[in-house]
Amino acid sequence: MIAYLDTQVVIWLAEGNTKPLSRDAKRLIEESDLLVSPMATFEFDILYEVRCTKMPWSAVRADLEYELGLRICDLSFSRIADAARNDAWTRDPFDRLIVANAKANSLAYLISADEDIRKNYHRAVW
Length: 126
What we know:
By secondary structure, this protein is α/β, with parallel strands linked by helices. The protein has helices spanning 7-14, 23-31, 38-49, 57-68, 77-84, 93-104, 115-120; strands at 2-5, 33-36, 71-72, 109-111, 124-125. The two termini are 16 Å apart.
């Protein structure tokens, strides 16, 4: 089973905060091969630049890889962009490509606190 982590979930896990996660999200984290979209890592760094996170992606990557087995997805960008083309539910490029990344990988799960994502991607879990 494959599950992607949305950016906010990565932030919480990097901070060691699992309290906001639902029981279903925690179960998926424990039982799945965890991936993160390269777009989420880029968003993570932008949030660091504007001081919404305490550390850049490079500082938390090794910890999340070690603790959770989290890997960066290596699907081609062209495949992800193709999956995003028909999703007009948002103009947010981060959300659109993060969801498309999960879709492009055999409709994998996506753990997300974002209500719009959960409304528009049937495999999103919170």
